[in-house]
Design a protein that fits this description.
Radius of gyration: 22 Å
Strand order of the largest sheet: 4-3-8-7-10
CATH class of the largest domain: Alpha Beta
Number of domains: 2
Order of helices and strands: EEEHEEEHEHEEHEHHEEHH
Number of helices: 8
Low-confidence stretches: 1-27
CATH topology of the largest domain: Alpha/beta knot
Number of strands: 12
Shape: elongated
Helix content: 25-40%
CATH superfamily of the largest domain: SPOUT methyltransferase, trefoil knot domain
Structural class: alpha/beta
Largest sheet: 5 strands, parallel
CATH architecture of the largest domain: 3-Layer(aba) Sandwich
């Protein structure tokens, strides 16, 4: 029997595991629903640091839905062989559509009567064939009320899920993972830390790699086919005590107390690191 929406397994931030059905949570600001065949996976990764504190503070609600609850056979089958032949197995569309519909509280229709989710809701399919997840994407997600994440597995997911159920198909990098659970945790973490109140010092999310101001400038430049006026920089190097360790010393400028010089040094070092590690961002080679 399919569980009611209120009885979906809930990650309990106090216990570090999935709470029993019927657990109640306070009114929250943002909700994540993670659909997976491995619900136990999320009991650990999302119970630490900023995400844990955001749950405890009532900023986010994270629920994990076992996809096998929406199967009809005694073997709880969620996959089948691909049409046209080929290696591997493919996740079936029926349980995924029904899981999302149960979470939404309404149907999504079919070819003759498609129905989109509310404007404040995103349905993500985690897939190596998706659009690249960036800090800009995380900022956009942090403004939503709800995100439903479908964790792909096996050789892939029936394409009808990507075309007619998911609002976006998302990839976290140019590599292939065993499933969508790790990417889903990344999306949750990246979006949660951008919520107001999630990070103690709000400046921490503003003065870091891929800052919003410069990223917005780059987005406009790409759309207009022009060149941005500023580099999209990685974060500058950070140092702390001791001032000398095994003969390696902290740069003198950081100890001198001249804030203007420190700011200049950080800008120069951020550009140098960007050119070294991500030259395409700084418009430089090598």
């Amino acid at each position: 029997m399919v569980p009611a929406a209120a009885e979906l397994p809930l990650i309990d931030p106090r216990e570090g595991n999935i709470a029993k059905s019927g657990s109640r949570a306070p009114a929250l600001q943002m909700r994540f629903d993670l659909i997976t065949i491995f619900p136990e996976f999320f009991a650990g990764p999302l119970d630490h640091g900023i995400v844990r504190r955001a749950k405890e503070a009532g900023l986010v609600q994270i629920r994990v839905q076992d996809l096998r609850e929406f199967t009809k056979d005694r073997h709880r089958t969620v996959d089948d062989r691909p049409f046209g032949g080929g290696e591997g197995m493919v996740l079936k569309p029926e349980p995924l559509f029904e899981a999302v519909e149960k979470l939404l509280g309404h149907g999504v229709g079919g070819v003759s009567d498609p129905r989109k989710p509310d404007a404040g809701t995103a349905i993500l399919l985690m897939s190596a064939a998706g659009k690249l997840f960036t800090q800009e994407t995380a900022r956009r997600y942090a403004k939503l009320e709800r995100i439903i994440v479908i964790c792909g597995r096996y050789e892939g997911v029936d394409e009808r899920v990507a075309e007619h159920l998911a609002t976006e198909e998302i990839c976290v990098g140019d590599y292939v993972l065993s499933g969508g659970e790790l990417p889903a945790a990344i999306v949750v973490d990246a979006a949660t830390r951008l919520l107001p109140g999630a990070v103690g010092n709000e400046a921490s999310t503003q003065n870091e790699s891929f800052s919003e101001e410069v990223a917005s400038e780059w987005r406009v430049a790409r759309e207009e086919g022009s060149k941005p006026g500023h580099h999209l920089l990685l974060d500058f190097p950070h140092y702390t005590r001791p001032a000398e360790y095994r003969g390696w010393k902290v740069p003198e400028v950081l100890i001198g107390g001249n804030h203007a010089e420190v700011a200049k040094w950080r800008q120069e070092q951020a550009l140098a690191k960007t050119r070294r590690n991500r030259p395409e961002l700084a418009g430089a080679k090598g």
